[in-house]
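Hi R.,

Here's the chain you asked about this morning:
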Amino acid sequence: MAIATINPTTGETVRTFPELSESEIERKVGLAHKRWRTYRDTGFDERAEWMRTGADLLEQEADAAARLMTTEMGKTLAAARGEALKCARGMRYYADNAAEFLADEPLADPAAVGARHALSRYRPLGPVLAVMPWNFPMWQVMRFAAPALMAGNVGLLKHASNVPQCALYLEDVFRRGGFPEGCFQTLLISSGRVEAILRDPRVVAATLTGSEPAGRSVAAICGDEVKHTVLELGGSDPFVVMPSADLDRAAETAVDARVQNNGQSCIAAKRFIVHSDVYDAFTDRFVAGMRALTVGDPFDPATDVGPLATERGRAAVEELVDEAVARGAKVLCGGRRPPGPGWFYPPTVITGITRDMRIFTEEVFGPVATLFRAADIEEALEIANATTFGLGSNAWTRDEAEQDRFISDLDAGQVFINGKTVSYPDLPFGGVKHSGYGRELSAHGIREFCNLKTVWIG
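And the predicted structure, written out as tokens:
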């Protein structure tokens, strides 16, 4: 895939970029390793000052950053601006909390282990390669970069090939924020050149957000090299609605949860599992809400849903929908691409899904909702967990016993009750099963790329 900005609203190539040469990659990896050997000993206060300056820049330039994101991957301008501001909040969160999160942890009774003093200390690992996706081209990067840099690591970014300008912009933000040269570098390379960097002994760990096949590849290489990895892969999140739910709020949130980021979010609700007692009432509200959305130019403030990011991505969504319909599924709204340029696909609701359809097991990365009827909580949980994914989940009920049951029994890294799944700097983020392992964000995220060193003093 060429490294290029291709406007998904028009399909036109805006700008192309050459790949780095082998000598350029060597220079950047060498610089990262050399820089880490001094950067790791900077203080939290110094790092925090640079991080806050970078956050100031992102806030001041939020409109320009948003236009860059919208041009490269098609999210609405309002959503893109919100993403830029969220990055700034995440930077400030780690600037404010890194020292506390990574403070020494003394053993309360060192005599119990025969020591005068005993503690655990967090130390940075070194250069970390981040392989990042296009769907949240700045936030996905920042939720790795902010904690990694505050911990004393340095970052190498291999971003998706269709968002090169976002990647270069983030490198520039850190540079202008004051971070020394080499602390955060963008590598404009194709995916075929990632393995050599992962196997470079100067690169000590990796993090990937992306598809399951990409995650398997990175994990296999790093496993062979015995290097730490954090993986956040796909999701097919359930959205369960029980009889006690506030149906108006649930349906309104369901629409937003399905079409956020034009439907291209790993934590977007994708499978809507509704108790039989409220199935018809919820379906009427949900379908009406999906039909009412405006699809169009993401730069237009009136637009609710912009184009899909790539032509190949739209084709993949169409294949899943068309295969389901051919096998007997019923389309309640949407289901066909509109005429004209750009990679648009309408908000779509499908029911009558059976387990022999690909759409039952595969993640739909577009504004397509599958609708299921459940007789009771047991069947709702069975359908919800009948997937290899386990990233986020949503359950709508005002019954506390049911809430406890969903919290305990939904196979997911995150459970949101009476609300949609959202990532917050304050909460750990990650999944189980084929959705990956490890955690980003919160105190857990900054500790992922640290050596937890045991110290015993006699």
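The longest strand covers residues 117-124.

Let me know if you need anything else.
M.
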